[in-house]
Amino acid sequence: MNDEILNDGLNLSMEFGENWLTDIDDRLGAKYSKLTKSELRSCDQLCRKINKIAHDFIRKNAIKNGESISFIDFAKFEEFMKLKYEWIDKANLSKLYSQSCYYALK
Q1: What stretches of the chain adopt beta strand conformation (E)?
Q2: CB 31, CB 74: distance < 8 Å
Q3: Measured in whole angstroms, how far is the alpha carbon of residue 29 from the centre of its chain?
Q4: Element (H, E) at 102
Q5: What single DSSP character describes residue 17?
Q6: Model pLDDT for residues 60-97, shown as the tens digit of each residue
Q7: Is 92 exposed, middle or buried (0-12, 13-18, 19+ CB in 10 A)?
């Protein structure tokens, strides 16, 4: 799969609303009809893994100061994620960071 497909899949995996935490297979397949069911399933699994890695990284690197909490700098998050997944675009990195910070507060 190319970077565009992977980024589209990752973006779909972070949707809120009615598609929140649902498989991306059908939605990604509607856009890329040439992908096999196996490729769609693999992309979904990879995107779930990436979301978990991002959420865990932010949660484990939270900075607690008494009652307040702050998060690792975006640049450090970006560097960490790009080491593993160099294809992730800036928009998805930003969204991953924001969602990971949001979930870390919950």
Answers
A1: 63-65, 68-70
A2: no
A3: 19
A4: helix 90-105
A5: G
A6: 998 877 778 889 999 999 999 999 999 999 999 999 99
A7: buried
